[in-house]
Amino acid sequence: MLFVAPIAAGAQQPTTTQVQQALQQQPGLGDAVRNRIAQSGLTADQIRTRLSASGYPSTLLDPYITATGPLTTPAPGAQELAALQALGLPSMAGQVLPYDTGLVRSVRTAPSDVFGVDVFQRTTTQFLPLLAGPVPADYKLGPGDNLVLILTGDVELSYSLPVTREGFILIPQVGQVHVANLTLDQLRDVLYTRLGRVYSGVRRAGNATTRFDVTVANVRANQVYVVGEVAQPGAYQISSLGTVFTALYAAGGVTERAKLRGVDVQRLGKTVATLDLYDYLLRGDTRNDIRLETGDVIFVPIHESRVRVSGAVLRPAVYETKAGETLADVIRASGGFRPDAALERVTVARILPASERGAQSIARQSIVVPLPSPISRSDSGRGEKGDVRSVIVPPFALEDGDVVQVDSLESAAEQYTVAITGMVQQPGNYPWRPGITLRQLMVLARGPRIGVDLREAEIARLPADRSKGQLATTLRVSLDSTYLFARDSGQRYVGPPGVPFPAAGTAAEVPLEPYDNVLIFRQPDFELQRTVTITGEVAYPGTYALRAKDDRLADLVERAGGLTPRAYSEGIRFVRPADDRGRINIDLPKALRDHASRDNIILQPGDSVRIPEYQPSVRVSGAVNSPGSVLYRRGAGLEYYLSAAGGFNRVADKGAVRVRLANGEIRTRRKSLFFGSSPTPGPGSEVFVPSKDPNEPRTDKVALFAAIAQILASTVAIIVVARRL
């Protein structure tokens, strides 16, 4: 049976010829369908059974089944593409057709506000019956089922036995056996008698020499009718294993007008079951999802009472209500309160009867339903202790059209706060409540930090009178040693040596007012150890704590055991990360000789000192003919090391030679028309000759010399004129 969906208003429905022409323009579509079916892993029998259960001809997709299909795959039609959904595969119709054919039901683009409406849409295969494996023990046989009978032992026989329209199977040499409305266990009892008349070895006792087994190879398709508020009312052929859920799924799901809490199943003119779909949606209860029989009618009526739940609940939506259900039931159906729900009250907006609306035509009134105070947030969930019915006071009956609003907690900007800063673990703003004290605020801030001064604190409070431009009034409050505590441990800890704190119990509790700002002081001159690091050629490298604020470089070298015989003191690298100062040039030999010199600087936290090993060589790299290391020669200048490295090559930038000394200092060669200066490399230095920029225009030498000659001539002329004067 073909699934037909209504075309949207204003849309032009294509003709069958137009659809087929569009599909014919997809030459590889048939192979794509065949590949998709092959990749599904379904057998040919499973494919045919699912098609039949979904209302399609069982042989519809035979041309695309790899094992049986023709060598040339025909082009599929829209019906074949729509049938892929019955196999649990995504439909290809929307990918290959340029318009809506109406043959495949369009999936709702936006989720429905009505709880449960979207569940039975054909977007998954979760409601298709399980066709593989044995049938359930209570499955009753009927016309259209196909059985398999196997005999082993004295005889080896196998029979395929379809059930006729009259409910019989025909067993060779045995005759007709009526099986309609029998379970497999009941059929086995019948077969013991009927087969035993023909095969003497078939006996119920353990000494049987012929044994048999009967199973259901293929189940029949039942025709059922789905009417009422469903997407596609009509008659559907579904598997005899199918249930009410299967039928609703085949019909494309329910509409937004559907009554989910009263779906009727009618059989032979009588109602045999009424499903409340909330049992399944909220609790996973499928006990009333009965198996359908041929001729059953599933009727989905229009909904009755509905209530909208919005705000700070886990699942805001529109919910159906039954007679007698209260606000608590609806809150529970919505999943309960969110952690940020304001648990003081719930507001219900109710439509007034026409007689009560008055001259101003006020259609709704707001009813505030109070909740008990205080309510533990852990009690607003599910379970016996957290049953929401125990927190709704009084029991509040709902009416059709009510809107339940659960407010969220106010943001920090909309509620009273207090602030704490200074020597606490977590300074910041905290919610104010009546009766909160400074001690409680200290607990929220996770207690004091090391170095806190617990003699007193300062509170900045909003002034009562602002007529003179006053912004705040300040007051000092007393503290004591009981504020030294570890959060949640119940044990005190001893602070660092320093200012003695007042004895326990000497400070009164300090109540706080909205927007108070508390400052917790630091002990005067309290500071943790300052550390500096010295590495390289000293006797005891490592990280040292400064003994005083005026400790100097020479003191550190002395504490580190002095320089080793391999140390190169001129190559000291002194780095100060504080304030991003970086490397500082230090004359260490001078600092060690004269402790009063400026090179013997005062150390600061984080300073790093490295004394390198003496390297009796100078490295020359860059645009020279023979880069490498040259032995250091006392008194030799830059030209000596450049010459030892083979001199400049043709691309060398001679005026930009750089020398990096062992202490990290970089000096650059300076060269002008008449004067120049070159840095002198020391032990462990590196000479680098950069290359010229190939994109920079080259200066013409003739023009350069002409300019020089002109300058000299002008200079001579000026001198001659000056002497004559």
Quick overview:
With 725 residues, this protein is of the alpha+beta class.
Helices and strands in order:
Layout: H1 16-24, H2 29-40, H3 44-53, H4 78-83, H5 93-96, E1 146-153, E2 157-162, E3 168-171, E4 175-178, H6 184-196, E5 210-218, E6 221-228, E7 234-239, H7 244-250, E8 263-267, E9 270-275, H8 277-283, E10 297-300, E11 306-311, E12 317-320, H9 327-333, E13 345-351, E14 364-370, E15 403-406, E16 417-422, E17 428-431, H10 438-444, E18 452-461, E19 473-478, E20 517-522, E21 531-536, E22 542-545, H11 553-559, E23 573-576, E24 582-584, H12 588-593, E25 608-611, E26 617-622, E27 628-631, H13 638-644, E28 658-660, E29 666-668, E30 670-671, E31 676-677, E32 686-689, H14 701-724
Parallel strand pairs: 6-10, 11-15, 16-20, 21-25, 26-32
Antiparallel strand pairs: 1-2, 1-5, 3-4, 6-7, 8-9, 8-10, 11-12, 13-14, 13-15, 16-17, 18-19, 18-20, 21-22, 23-24, 23-25, 26-27, 28-29, 28-32, 30-31
